[in-house]
UniProtKB/TrEMBL annotation:
Domain of life: Eukaryota
Keywords, sorted A to Z: Hydrolase, Signal
Pfam families referenced in this protein's UniProt entry, alphabetically: AAT
Molecular function terms from GO: hydrolase activity
Signal sequence residues: 1-17
Keyword Zinc on entry: no
Annotated protein name in UniProt: Peptidase C45 hydrolase domain-containing protein
Domain Peptidase C45 hydrolase per the UniProt entry, residue ranges: 140-357
PANTHER family named in the record: BETA-ALANYL-DOPAMINE_CARCININE HYDROLASE (PTHR34180:SF1), PEPTIDASE C45 (PTHR34180)
Record Gene3D superfamilies: 1.10.10.2120, Penicillin V Acylase, Chain A
tRNA processing listed as a keyword: no
Top-level taxonomy: Eukaryota, Sar, Alveolata, Dinophyceae, Suessiales
Alphabetical list of InterPro entries matching this protein: C45_proenzyme-like, Peptidase_C45, Peptidase_C45_hydrolase
Length: 377
């Protein structure tokens, strides 16, 4: 126990924000899904093994129960039927990293899989916050990507698959755009993600990470909305960002129910359904506290003011921004791995360094503000 506590303290001392791994570049054909996964697995083998090893004990506990084995088998069959190409990407990651495919799929479907045994589910995934506004003067979304310490190693991926081009800041060992701090494509479509939890799981629906991976392929707003509206095994929250047409919508999904909130006023979102009626939804203290704290603060009129809110730490038990300081002050939640500003006015995405209220930019990405026309030569 003492050694475990010492290890955790050493890990906490080493963490500021996410640890950015070397960038990943891939250029391949439209159907090179396995090859994409293989290249990622080879590039980030050590980080993938470390992350999966941290999640493996809980996954093995689930996967060793007959009820959960049946649940997992049905989820696998659904994804093999609906998105076989994305399972090929995971198989490629498995081959490249040497990590068992079953465990990689389990990590990607961890929230959906957990419904088979609530007592064995990992600590509630009550993390990530967004504050967005799109009016005649400003159009932006700011996002805190929160997570557990084992998930802190992220990498920038710039990928071309045939005519598709997309960028993501991603977790090692997961589908691009599935577990990501930011993602956008060459059509000027971007998104951020927040966990939300309906009370049940429907194994005939897709896992949230697979849906958001598909969003990277969307060629326009209507196609992106259709992807979001697919039946989910559980649910998810999407901030869909259209840089080409300067618009933002917030989507909440629970199974085959979906709500869209067009953003024209400042709107804060955490980890519970706010626009969709979902009886029996799973909520946590962190989300409740963050929502309450956001209501206490001045409504932001600019991106800088919204970043101030995302950096707030006045609620010591469940702050909006989580770092070494917040944990020293009594933070009972997780860690903010990255903070992001999506600026639709300027066609720019900023990956922030440290507390976002300080306004320090670590990395900037340019996003197309007009759709790309594909020319075949």
């Amino acid at each position: 126990m003492l050694l475990g506590a010492m290890w955790l303290l050493l890990q906490i001392a080493a963490v500021g924000a996410a640890e950015l791994l070397p960038d990943f570049y891939f250029r391949g054909g439209e159907k090179d899904h396995f090859e994409l996964g293989l290249a990622m697995g080879q590039a980030y083998q050590a980080a993938i093994r470390e992350r999966v090893a941290a999640h493996a004990p809980q996954l093995e506990q689930l996967l060793n129960e007959q009820r959960c084995q049946e649940h997992f088998g049905k989820l696998l069959a659904t994804h093999q039927r609906l998105v076989p190409e994305l399972l090929e990407e995971l198989r490629g990651i498995s081959s490249g990293s040497g990590v068992e495919f079953r465990l990689l799929l389990g990590v990607s479907l961890q929230e959906e899989l957990g419904y088979c045994n609530a007592s064995a589910r990992r600590k509630g995934p009550d993390h990530c916050s967004d504050y967005m506004l799109c009016n005649s003067q400003h159009c932006f979304d700011v996002h805190n990507e929160d997570g557990d310490l084992p998930d802190r190693k992220l990498f920038v991926a710039q990928v071309q698959l045939g005519a598709l081009n997309f960028t993501a800041v991603n977790y090692a060992g997961d589908l691009l755009g599935g577990m990501s701090a930011l993602a956008f494509n060459s059509q000027g479509l971007g998104f951020s993600l927040n966990w939300v939890g309906p009370g049940t799981c429907d194994v005939s629906g897709l896992g949230r990470n697979f849906v958001s991976r598909q969003l990277l392929t969307a060629q326009g707003w209507d196609e992106a909305k259709s992807i979001v509206a697919q039946k989910h095994a559980a649910g998810h929250n999407y901030q869909l960002l259209d840089f080409a047409h300067r618009r933002i919508s917030n989507f909440e999904v629970a199974h085959d129910k979906v709500s869209e909130k067009v953003i024209d006023q400042a709107f804060f979102h955490a980890n519970q359904y706010q626009t969709l009626e979902v009886p029996g939804q799973i909520t946590g203290n962190s989300s409740l506290h963050r929502l309450a704290r956001a209501r206490q603060l001045p409504v932001p009129r600019t991106a800088a003011e919204a970043l101030e809110v995302l950096g707030d730490q006045q609620d010591h038990a469940y702050p909006i921004f989580h770092d070494q300081l917040s944990h020293r002050l009594g933070d009972q939640s997780d860690w903010t791995l990255a903070s992001v500003l999506f600026d639709l006015q300027e066609g720019r995405v900023d990956l922030m360094a440290g507390n976002p209220k300080d306004g320090v930019v670590q990395r900037t990405f340019q996003v197309p503000k007009q759709r790309t026309e594909h020319i075949v030569v």
